[in-house]
């Protein structure tokens, strides 16, 4: 792991401000940590309601603008990495809770058990997506070897 980070936006802000926050955060992160071979993200089809779905896709568009400014794009993975698939590959349980995902990510990356992820676990979720891709593509060992 080179870096893991996330940005939170406020529901008090307009969508424009929230999207700008995401875009500038991603641009700064890419600038600081490039080059990358691949950018992946978890599949997302719908949120708990129309507004949640709109918010996610707006954030994705903001991130895509930032990535494009540096010549990157988030890969359209086939098959897609669904939340259940990510959890299954990383923890062995497709219904794992965020704390279980974070614990498995610590083990996969050989981080200390007391390594703290941000509140909400967005950074550990992002790392889980990366790990799931690497596991699925047989680029790293299977879960039994990593978390044993």
Automatic annotation (TrEMBL):
The organism of origin for this protein: Fontibacillus phaseoli
Coiled coil (UniProt feature): none
The name this protein goes by in its record: Crossover junction endodeoxyribonuclease RuvC
A Pfam family the protein falls into: RuvC
Family that this chain belongs to: Belongs to the RuvC family.
The entry's keywords: Cytoplasm, DNA damage, DNA recombination, DNA repair, DNA-binding, Endonuclease, Hydrolase, Magnesium, Metal-binding, Nuclease
GO molecular-function terms, A-Z: DNA binding; DNA endonuclease activity; hydrolase activity; metal ion binding
UniProt GO BP: DNA recombination; DNA repair
